[in-house]
Amino acid sequence: MSNEILKKYVCLNPFKYLDIQQNGQWVCCPSWCPTNIRTHNHPVDKNENLKENWFSSQAVDIRRSVIDGTYRHCNHKVCPSLSQLINTGEKPDGFITIEEFNQQYDLENYQGLPNHILFGFDRSCNLRCPSCRSRLIPNSEINSEEYDIKKYLLECIEKDFSQSASLILITGSGDPFYSKLYRDYLINFNPMNYPKLDRIQLITNGILLTDQMWNSLNAKSYIKTIEVSIDAGTKETYESRTRLNGDWSSLIRNLRFLSSLTTLTDLICSFVVSKHNYKEMEIFLQLITEIFENAKFNFSVHYRQIVYWQEGAHSPSEIKNLQVFEKDHPEFRNFIHELDKIHRKNRVNHNFHHLYEE
Ligand code: SF4
Ligand code: SF4
Question: pTM (2 decimals)?
Answer without folding.
Answer: 0.92
